[in-house]
Specification:
The protein is an alpha/beta fold. The chain is 42% helix and 16% strand. The chain has helices at residues 10-31, 64-71, 74-77, 90-99, 109-119, 164-175, 195-199, 210-219, 243-247, 249-271, 276-285, 294-308, 319-331, and strands spanning 48-54, 80-86, 104-108, 123-130, 135-140, 155-158, 184-187, 205-209, 223-226, 237-242. It has a five-stranded mixed beta sheet, with helices on both faces. Helix 6 (164-175) links the parallel strand 6 and strand 7 (184-187). The longest helix is centred in the last third of the chain and has 23 residues, at 249-271. Keywords: Signal. This is NitT/TauT family transport system substrate-binding protein. Residues 1-35 form the signal peptide. Residues 63-272 form the SsuA/THI5-like domain.
Length: 355
């Protein structure tokens, strides 16, 4: 197992990651462990109601599979009435799924591992809608960050302290043998004008979502974008449900139908070579700002599509990649070493799987 690097304050990150989950999970594990998740009985029109928790506003291309599954009728064809419900971050989403108030959510791979490996949360990953990181590191051409070793001595802007972005910076730095003393992190938020801080020399680079990175590249000719997925395994996203749902045949069936609908939506987008029909469906359903620039939206969506298929089969969790994500989390001391991370996910509910 990978050993933790020296001279880091990763234990502080571990405690911080756990603290976001600790209070809620302790209460839920004590009192709600056997609760049945939402998504059981038939709803109006014979459809089964399902609550999907999105940890960010749904109006983003990152949720294209879910939006197309809903607006394109794929959920309905599977007999599902899926309602999107935004939460205040992954910790709340995980707690809500355990409590039984929602059937499924979508969280970062490391957040999932912290919940299970750090707190023993009774949850499992059942699919991987994003199979590689879609966060990007943006810098300027006069002092570019093109590889992890370029982080040495730099100040990197992150949206918030203790989140996925900070973990990603730490993991990138570790691959180059750097310590916390070598890389400074500064909270800069998510304002559109953050690139100006780079141009002014106040920070050297910052982390943004794929949508923003594509926009910045088009607007700023001197912008340089590093794709962390070329270096690290982490930063993916998984569908997560409770172990209680997996143990309940009726809930398990609902999850299988949910995943079939999402896969059908992904396939329909992949088949839409021009993406015109896809953008039309997305725009008819939600006011997604990037759709006002169709060519930027198409370029962004094609990169998302690549992330859906990065390991060869949409939604499937690749065991070797999952093991590498776990090793990265152990090296950052986000989770203890020596655990069986392969027991934290299943591909048995995916289309074509025998379960």
């Amino acid at each position: 197992m990978t050993s933790a690097p020296p001279a880091r304050h990763s234990r502080r990150h571990f405690r911080r990651a756990l603290s976001a989950l600790a209070a809620g999970l302790a209460l839920l594990l004590a009192g709600c462990g056997g609760a049945a998740p939402a998504g059981g009985g038939p709803g109006g029109g014979g459809l089964t109601p399902v609550t999907f928790l999105n940890v960010l506003p749904i109006e983003s291309l990152t949720f294209t599979p879910e939006i197309i599954a809903q607006a394109g009728g794929h959920f309905e064809r599977e007999g599902l009435d899926v309602q999107f419900q935004v939460t205040r971050g992954s910790a709340q989403a995980i707690q809500t799924v355990i409590a039984g108030s929602a059937l499924v959510t979508r969280v970062g791979d490391t957040e999932m591992m912290v919940a299970v490996g750090g707190r023993g949360a009774p949850v499992s990953a059942v699919g991987q809608p994003l199979q590689q990181a879609t966060i990007r590191v943006v810098s300027a051409a006069d002092d570019p960050i093109r590889a992890p070793e370029d982080l040495r001595g730099k100040t990197i802007g992150i949206p918030s302290e203790g989140g996925t972005s900070e973990t990603l910076v730490d993991t990138l730095a570790r691959t180059a043998g750097l310590t916390d003393a070598d890389v400074k992190k500064q909270v800069v938020g998510l304002a559109p004008g953050v690139f100006e801080l780079v141009q002014q020399g106040r920070i050297d680079a910052y982390l943004v979502a794929l949508d923003t990175a594509v926009t910045v590249q088009r607007q700023q000719p001197d912008a340089v974008v590093l794709d962390p997925s070329q270096v690290i395994a982490g930063g993916t996203q998984v569908y997560m449900t409770s172990q209680a749902a997996l143990a309940d045949p009726a809930q398990r069936d609902v999850l299988q139908r949910f995943l079939r609908a999402v896969r059908a939506a992904q396939d329909s987008v992949i088949a839409d070579q021009s993406l015109d029909a896809t953008l039309q469906t997305l725009g008819d359903a939600y006011d997604i700002p990037i759709l006002r620039e169709p060519e930027v939206a198409k370029e962004t969506l094609r990169q998302y599509m690549a992330s859906w298929q990065a390991t060869g089969e949409p939604l499937r969790i690749a065991p070797d990649q999952w093991a590498r994500v776990y090793d990265e989390a152990v090296a950052e001391e986000l989770v203890p070493g020596g655990l069986d991370a392969s027991s934290w996910f299943t591909n048995d509910l995916l289309p074509g799987a025998s379960s």
